[in-house]
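Lab meeting, item 3. Inverse folding demo.
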């Protein structure tokens, strides 16, 4: 006798119901804890190599750092494009790979690390940093602006403190600052004093370079232990630099840097500037890790801002901008409400055609099916995002297909006078193969989408995976859980006239359908050409309707991109950016939330550009429900 899952379900109803409750509990827990975000993580197959070389000129960085790195990395397999940027004190190499799998990219990334280590870099250059880049890095979850018309050192120190607080939040992967200059010690050498002591600027540079390190001084062995000694010669501020010895005389007196130069605390040259509503600012962009919850991180950031604001220096304020959680909340809310409406409609249809008890049995399986799928998504490391919910809604009407087929057949056996247990066992035995084959053929139609390549393929991959998980969960529910519920529900009451009325109504509807089908078959030579004409005609309507992969959601943010000729000084670019800021600030108060200006950086849909000739202005608008005009109308007004 072949295995019949319904026989096990009916014979072990207590166990099945316990599993049912356990699935509900674990599923609800997964639904509460699964990361929520706007889009799934997508790897771009990009690698960044950064080398810090303090004191080096851009030409030195290019000749001794970026060009050797480019030459070495170019031989790595599957490299598509290499871009480099050489600045004072640092070199940056951007490696774009061809469209390869994530596993293959990780191997290529290891190859890049191995090749970079093999490059003979200057001795005083820091170790290279090799990082990958994904959509999480490309789109920050939320941005915090530290702003105020205060001295730069006050803004700098406050930003460092706030940045450390933000890094401690759960789910935050990184906090990147824009507009903050690193502190530096400025040494202005007096040529006459140097000449008087028989020295030149190279002597001062050599002495300072030695003090920028904490070199090892050997090892002490005591008993069975070894202790590494390190000399502390690294200077921390202007006073330490001023006390650096250039040479010692025979009388024991030392010549110090402060004797031949003016030393003061300052900042490195500015490469990126930022303003918030006209005030000097530093923007802190937060990115999340794979298990981070966008909604929770944004909420934690807002709570942190409220908590630390009373402790800020006078004149310094914090503002939360570019909050992705607002859009995530709206989109997920719309999708969830659509799912609930769809669930309600499915329940109503089932009630009309199979009666309230049949509808109850089928509807009980819907949450179990979806919660099983959510558990599988959560335990597999996926998140709940727009694509996941799209897959869930797409398959909403399919989850009850298996249940309806089994219920209809079980009802037929029940009408033949069998008890509920025997009716559902026999009903499942007769339709098990067609139901399973139907599910697997549907899976066969969706799963090839997993094989799509490129960024779009990575972006859409979660949709067929979600559909497959839901359909498999519905098959499990229909074979192992539904029979138990059928016996429990049908055993509560005897069949009543309500079900008979509903099934009589269904019979009438079936009779009308058969009559219409007979007419169509009688005029089949006219119906078939008409159907072909309608199909061809509908194809010509596609260009009129337009095609897009996903509907465009309205972001309450406008970006003004500024690109000046190559070689433009940062000050000139910043002046143009400031003019656009003033124009944006002229929008009505009931439409405008904030205006953030950046010079030296430009974030486009394809890449991030750094340079003195680029800039951008972010215009944060109030939510669509709080303003009269659309974003498109506001953009047209700004133009």
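The presenter then showed the designed sequence:
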């Amino acid at each position: 006798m072949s295995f019949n899952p319904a026989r096990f379900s009916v014979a072990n109803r207590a166990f099945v119901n316990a599993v049912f409750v356990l699935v509900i509990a674990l599923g609800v827990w997964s639904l509460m804890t699964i990361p929520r975000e706007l889009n799934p993580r997508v790897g771009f197959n990009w690698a960044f190599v950064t080398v810090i070389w303090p004191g080096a000129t851009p030409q030195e960085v290019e000749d001794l750092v970026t060009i050797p790195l480019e030459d070495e990395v170019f031989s790595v397999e599957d490299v598509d494009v290499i871009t480099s940027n050489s600045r004072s004190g640092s070199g940056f190499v951007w490696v774009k790979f061809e469209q390869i799998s994530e596993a293959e990219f990780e191997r290529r990334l290891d190859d890049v690390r191995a090749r970079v280590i093999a490059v003979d870099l200057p001795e005083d250059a820091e170790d290279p940093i090799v990082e990958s880049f994904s959509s999480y890095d490309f789109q920050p979850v939320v941005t915090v602006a530290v702003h105020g018309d205060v001295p730069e050192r006050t803004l700098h120190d406050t930003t460092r403190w706030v940045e450390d607080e933000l890094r401690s939040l759960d789910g935050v992967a990184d906090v990147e600052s824009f507009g903050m200059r690193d502190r530096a010690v400025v040494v202005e050498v007096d040529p006459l004093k140097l000449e008087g002591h028989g020295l030149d600027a190279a002597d001062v540079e050599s002495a300072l370079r030695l003090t920028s390190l904490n070199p090892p001084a050997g090892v002490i062995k005591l008993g069975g232990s070894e202790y590494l000694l390190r000399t502390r010669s690294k200077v921390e501020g202007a006073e330490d630099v001023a006390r650096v010895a250039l040479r010692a005389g025979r009388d024991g007196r030392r010549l110090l840097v402060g004797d031949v130069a003016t030393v003061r605390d300052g900042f490195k040259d500015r490469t990126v500037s930022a303003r918030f509503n006209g005030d000097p600012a530093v923007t802190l962009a937060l990115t999340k890790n794979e298990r981070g919850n966008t909604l929770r991180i944004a909420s934690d950031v807002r709570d942190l801002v409220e908590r630390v604001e009373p402790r800020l220096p006078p004149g310094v304020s914090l503002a939360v901008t570019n909050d992705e959680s607002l859009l995530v909340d709206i989109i997920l809310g719309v999708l969830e409400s659509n799912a609930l409406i769809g669930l309600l409609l499915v329940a109503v249809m089932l009630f009309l055609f199979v009666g309230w008890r049949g509808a109850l049995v089928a509807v009980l399986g819907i949450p179990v099916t979806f919660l099983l799928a959510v558990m599988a998504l959560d335990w597999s490391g996926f998140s709940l995002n727009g694509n996941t919910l799209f897959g869930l809604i797409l398959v909403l009407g399919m989850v009850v297909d298996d249940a309806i087929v089994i219920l209809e057949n079980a009802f037929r056996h029940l009408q033949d006078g069998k008890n509920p247990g025997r009716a559902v066992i026999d009903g499942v035995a007769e339709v098990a193969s067609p139901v399973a084959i139907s599910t697997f053929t549907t899976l066969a139609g969706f799963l090839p989408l997993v094989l799509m390549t490129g960024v779009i393929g990575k972006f859409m991959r979660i949709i067929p995976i979600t559909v497959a998980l839901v359909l498999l969960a519905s098959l499990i529910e229909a074979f192992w859980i539904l029979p138990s519920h059928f016996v429990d529900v049908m055993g509560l009451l005897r069949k009543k006239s309500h079900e008979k009325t509903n099934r009589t109504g269904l019979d009438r509807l079936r009779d009308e359908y058969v009559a219409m089908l007979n007419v169509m078959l009688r005029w089949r030579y006219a119906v078939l050409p008409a159907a072909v004409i309608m199909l061809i005609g509908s194809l010509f309507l596609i260009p009129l309707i337009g095609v897009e992969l996903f509907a465009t959601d309205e972001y309450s943010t406008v970006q003004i991109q500024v690109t000046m000729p190559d070689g433009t000084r940062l000050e000139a670019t910043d002046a143009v950016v400031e003019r656009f800021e003033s124009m944006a600030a002229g929008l009505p108060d009931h439409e405008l939330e904030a205006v953030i200006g950046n010079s030296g950086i430009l974030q486009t849909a394809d890449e991030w550009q750094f340079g003195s000739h680029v800039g951008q202005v972010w215009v944060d608008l109030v939510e669509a429900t709080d303003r009269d005009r659309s974003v498109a109308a506001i953009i047209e007004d700004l133009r």
